[in-house]
Amino acid sequence: MPIINRISEFHDELTQIRRDIHAHPELAFQEHRTAALVAEKLKEFGVDEVVTGIGRTGVVGVIKGKTNKSGRVIGLRADMDALPIVEAQPHEYKSTNPGVMHACGHDGHTTILLGAAKYLAETRNFDGTAIMIFQPAEEGGGGGNEMVKDGLMDRFGIHEVYGLHNSPGREVGHFGIRPGSLMAAADTFCIDIIGKGAHAARPHSGIDPIIIGTDLVQAFQKIASRNTDPLKSVVVSVTTFHAGDADNVIPQTAKISGTVRTLEEDVRDLAQERITQICESIAQMHGAQINCQYNREYPVTVNDVERTKFAVQVAKEVVGEDRVVDDTDPVMGAEDFSFMLNARPGAYIFLGQGDTAGVHHPDYDFNDEIIPIGCSYMVKLVERGMPA
């Protein structure tokens, strides 16, 4: 693999940074230590400008090339937040924040972007400006949206933007990407069922919210099997169901919640419409009251066609043509880099980290072996996208 030699030289330094971040994980919008470390390293590396507090706890570093005849500006993004999971692995760099761990590899993403910043600030072998975007709150907080709303794209004049995510189960150093929809939209619903409490021995005298809830759960599954084009993707998952406190009491209320994942806007609209209709009809059927709150969270992550072709060329330059899949299957997980791709064209790519535990798992750990690969990819996006 033609990894940039200079990046390989400071691989050990980057590994120590990654493990330090791993040992001090912080949840969404609480990344104060991480943001401070990032800002400190960017200044140490000699970037031209460091801006903190973008999107609450985000950090932006500005690196100017040797020349700026092109006027081009490319943004590179990494996420910084961790997850509320108890870490299972006994690493020497194990989380020191109980109940919080870097279970998705954001510590590695942040380190990769820091490594790219270090190299680009040293060499500046490009014509234009590189913007290093360190984003907070990817895990449900919508930090990408917060940075965009805070003026990220216009303030720094970004023309296109790129991101990267590690991929457990994909071979080390292998890239996967596709044009168009790569990751799903993520919506949530929260449903309150108001029935009529009764003695469990006299169910006919009440309106059972548990029965109503089970009807809802069953009906929601038909959105995928009977309402949606079989060639299109939708996932409707009920993930919580709470009702009752005693074994001889039919409760007055129940609450269910869950998530909807889709890859196309028309399917997203259909799912929301059907969930609302199902709630209304089942409430009428049982003589109960059902209140449904449906929230549109992260949009579909859509890769720009031309920027995807460019990303594929760069990835092949770094790891070789046989290690890049340019039509990888879409993923029903969600990613709030989607907000940035809605604001500017760009591309998101997966980088294989080998046969490790999956993301969001207590046994997960980022594979430090892929740091130089990710750094080299990020650097080449800038150098090839804005050639000196």
Structural features:
alpha/beta, 388 residues, Alpha-Beta Plaits, Aminopeptidase, 16 strands, 4-stranded antiparallel sheet
Word description of this protein:
With 388 residues, the protein is α/β, with parallel strands linked by helices. It folds into 2 domains: 263 residues, Zn peptidases (Aminopeptidase); 114 residues, Alpha-Beta Plaits (2-Layer Sandwich). Helices cover 36% and strands 25% of the residues. It contains 11 helices and 16 strands. An 8-stranded mixed sheet has the order 1-2-4-3-5-16-6-15, sandwiched between helices. A 4-stranded antiparallel sheet has the order 10-12-8-13, covered by helices on one side. A two-stranded antiparallel sheet has the order 7-14. Helix 4 links the parallel strand 3 and strand 4. The longest helix has 22 residues. The mean pLDDT is 98.
In a nutshell, what does this entry contain?
The chain is of the alpha/beta class. It contains eleven helices and 16 strands. It has helices at residues 5-9, 11-23, 32-45, 106-123, 143-149, 152-155, 209-227, 265-286, 305-319, 337-343, 371-385, and strands at 49-54, 58-64, 73-79, 129-135, 160-167, 175-176, 180-183, 185-194, 198-199, 234-243, 249-250, 253-262, 289-298, 301-303, 324-325, 346-352.
SSE layout:
Layout: H1 5-9, H2 11-23, H3 32-45, E1 49-54, E2 58-64, E3 73-79, H4 106-123, E4 129-135, H5 143-149, H6 152-155, E5 160-167, E6 175-176, E7 180-183, E8 185-194, E9 198-199, H7 209-227, E10 234-243, E11 249-250, E12 253-262, H8 265-286, E13 289-298, E14 301-303, H9 305-319, E15 324-325, H10 337-343, E16 346-352, H11 371-385
Parallel strand pairs: 3-4, 3-5, 5-16, 6-15
Antiparallel strand pairs: 1-2, 2-4, 6-16, 7-14, 8-12, 8-13, 9-11, 10-12
Helix pairs in contact: 2-4, 3-4, 4-11, 7-8, 9-11
